[in-house]
């Protein structure tokens, strides 16, 4: 099945390899893999046409395998960028991260549990086993006899999570409120596995803490200033 135009074969071979080099100039993984597939198709054509005795199956098989792997990876990358599974309740948290892909955020959600109703969240002086994020309603912070209502968008237990120390206040979720609850051990395991989630979560927790420190009489556990849900009772 050889081709009678060796110059055309040379062009196919060199263009295919040149495109493979160009692929590495792309930072976007989908674009990179699409260009790699184009390169592999051209190189496969070369190994199909080069020999009059038929395709050169050894190199051709590897090119085909490379095409298949990249097609699968493109499908996974597209899936990672789709927003399915991010409902209205958790959408504000996803948008607050800003840097996480929908897939990364879904993996963060997968190790959390949604809980609601009146219940204690943290006890002062005791190291929490969970990190919380208030989705709706309010939680009551009690420290040194002072009480503060914390609204949606706030993290609870972030100081203990960041430092590994005990909770700095007693916090109780109010009736009708809902939170995301992460087991600390499971969450740390995910953060060790996925550096992007580690960096994004630590950054958001640090920002949340900085805002609380500058706007609250209870800096360790106060809510975000733009929620309009803060009240001292």
From TrEMBL:
Instruction: Show the SUPFAM superfamilies listed in the entry.
Output: cAMP-binding domain-like (SSF51206)
Which Pfam families does UniProt cross-reference here? cNMP_binding, POPDC1-3
> Which PROSITE patterns does the entry link to?
CNMP_BINDING_3 (PS50042)
What is the recorded name of this protein?
Cyclic nucleotide-binding domain-containing protein
The UniProt record lists the Cyclic nucleotide-binding domain at 121-191
Keyword annotations for this protein, in alphabetical order, are: Membrane, Transmembrane, Transmembrane helix
Q: Which InterPro entries match?
A: cNMP-bd_dom, cNMP-bd_dom_sf, POPDC1-3_dom, RmlC-like_jellyroll
Origin organism of this chain? Kaistia nematophila
Which residues are listed as membrane-spanning? 6-26, 33-54, 60-78
């Amino acid at each position: 099945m050889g081709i009678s135009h060796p110059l055309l074969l040379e062009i196919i071979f060199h263009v295919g390899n040149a495109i493979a080099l160009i692929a590495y100039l792309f930072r976007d993984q989908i674009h990179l893999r699409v260009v790699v597939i184009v390169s592999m198709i051209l190189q496969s054509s070369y190994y199909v046409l080069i020999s009059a005795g038929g395709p050169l199956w050894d190199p051709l098989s590897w090119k085909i395998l490379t095409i298949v792997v990249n097609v699968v990876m493109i499908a996974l990358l597209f899936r990672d960028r789709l927003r399915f599974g991010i409902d209205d309740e958790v959408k504000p948290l996803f948008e607050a991260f800003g840097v996480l892909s929908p897939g990364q955020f879904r993996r963060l959600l997968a190790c959390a549990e949604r809980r609601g109703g009146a219940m204690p969240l943290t006890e002062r002086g005791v190291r929490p086993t969970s990190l919380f994020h208030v989705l709706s309603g309010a939680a009551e912070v009690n420290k040194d006899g002072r009480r503060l209502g914390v609204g949606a968008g706030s993290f609870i237990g972030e100081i203990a999570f960041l430092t590994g120390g005990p909770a700095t206040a007693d916090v109780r979720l109010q009736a009708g409120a809902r939170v995301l609850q992460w087991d600390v051990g499971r969450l740390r395991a995910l953060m060790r596995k996925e550096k992007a989630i580690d960096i994004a979560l630590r950054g958001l927790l640090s920002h949340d803490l900085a805002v609380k420190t500058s706007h609250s009489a209870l800096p360790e556990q106060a809510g975000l200033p733009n929620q309009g849900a803060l009240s001292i009772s």
